[in-house]
Amino acid sequence: MNPRTEQNRIIIFDTTLRDGEQSPGATMNLEEKLRVAEMLDAMGVDVIEAGFAIASNGDFEAVREVARLAKNAAVCSLARAGVKDIDRAWEALAHARRPRIHTFIATSPLHMRVKLQMEPDVVLEAIEKSVSHARNLCDDVEWSAEDGTRSEHDFLCRAVETAIKAGATTINIPDTVGYTVPEEYRALFEMLINRVPNIDKAVLSTHCHNDLGLAVANSIAGVLGGARQIECTINGIGERAGNAALEEIVMALRTRADALPYTTGVKTEKLTPASHLVSTVTGLAVQANKAIVGANAFAHESGIHQDGVLKDAQTYEIMTPESVGLKTSSLVMGKHSGRHAFYEKLKELGYDLGPNALQDAFVRFKDLADKKKQIYDEDIVALVDDEVMRGKDRIKFVSLQIVCGSKGPQSAELELEIDGELKSTKATGDGPVDATFKAIRALVEHNAHLQLYQVHAVTGGTDAQAGVTVRLEEDGKTVTGQGADTDTLVASARAYVHALNKLFVKREKSAPASLMA
Question: Could you tell me if 170 and 128 are in contact, meaning their C-beta atoms sit under 8 angstroms apart?
């Protein structure tokens, strides 16, 4: 085994706020992006790709505010190979302590011919001009060869050499469509190291998509081939099948240090809180059998497994739950708990709320405690996330009364606060959920179609809080909302309203013609 040295330090480049947000329905508003960025900065991520500054005013504002917020991580904005893109990125990054411009252009024959409609020599000229312009503005410039794994080796070497000569300090070779396999990806980096004469002047980077389920394996293979930066996202979210999952990569390197002698700066105890936060703000649930952060990652049902774990956890657990920030549920909170105990519990769970948000959360906690005999950590997390996510929403849930049963019609009386004005209505429908959603539609006019309605119990028991996910689609725009309450119908109304608020934000965003996958 090679000794651990600074040369074996892996840079973790998180693109949850850029590539991750391109997941259908995963759009985040500014407040949500800042919460995620603050978590990423605190957990030790090296680079935060905050967005695509030229894509919209909303993206520009997000990059600018994340640049102001980050205390430790470098903050990056994506830019196509054009002066306007690069200038807009630099304008957004002006206040960053450690700014990085990330510019890209496609290098595969298919992309150059069909998408760019450019000859290879023209692409090389574009690389030289764009990287040089970016380097004149910023000392830290990353260049990406879009669809790099399907590029011809000779041309890719020329492109990489051109980018480094023009001033690129990081060279990213993305597996844009999730096509490569580990041995092939490792060999690609080894080939570049052997053939590109100035390769020692830049850090090589991976960026793998998960279309074949190989994103994490390919990323690690890239490191074995010489890459020292990995681009990834929390929970592996991203376009299509997603990206390489940050938590899986970090824990693979930590757990298998014998075979993978590499280190990262990530505080692994923050992985579970980060996973939960991203799931909450995007509305993309984490599958139960997801590695590292899934609900079943440390669960044992088989009798043989249970017996082994009780005797020695290492029989079936290759890492400890505590190492990824997983805490067992506790029952110490209840209706007699005071503010101080509640505030301390929030700190333990990783929340740092302002005075107003704390008070609002405490009021909802006391209401919940009157309904439930036993309050679990998961209950508090669901309650607080549900409250915090709605801080600046235009539409706010106020109250809901339902009449339902086997003898119809089922009806819903609903009150909402819309732009500060209290409005109410009554609607009937085919069941209480249909009646509730029709009431919301009556108060908030929109053309969105319901694509997904999903309910799960936050904890066990008949008095458990319901967690509801709603996905809406309008004119090709997809958004996902979440709500939590001991009353499933109230949780449903909250989730639908949350989705509508996100839809209004997304209406204001206009994506550019071409985004890098």
Answer: no
Yes or no: say if 143 and 171 are a contact pair by the CB < 8 Å rule. yes
Query: End-to-end distance of the chain based on CA atoms, in angstroms?
Result: 35
Q: Is the dihedral of CA 186, 188, 189, 190 positive or negative?
A: positive
pLDDT of residue 5: 45
CATH architecture of the domain 395-507 equals 2-Layer Sandwich (3.30)
User: How many whole angstroms separate alpha carbon 208 and alpha carbon 501?
Assistant: 32
What are the boundaries of each domain within the chain?
Answer: 10-264, 339-386, 395-507
What would the pLDDT profile of 378-388 be if each residue is shown by its tens digit?
788 777 776 66
Mean pLDDT of all residues in the chain?
A: 88
Place of tokens 């935060």: 48
Q: Which amino acid is at 41?
A: D
pTM over the 0.70 mark: yes
Q: What strand order describes the sheet that includes 395-403?
A: 395-403, 410-418, 421-429
- Residue 504, CA distances (Å) to 396, 446, 495 in order: 13, 10, 15
Q: What is the residue type of 47?
A: V
Pair of tokens at residue 344: 């301390």
- Is domain 10-264 annotated with CATH 3.30.70.20? no
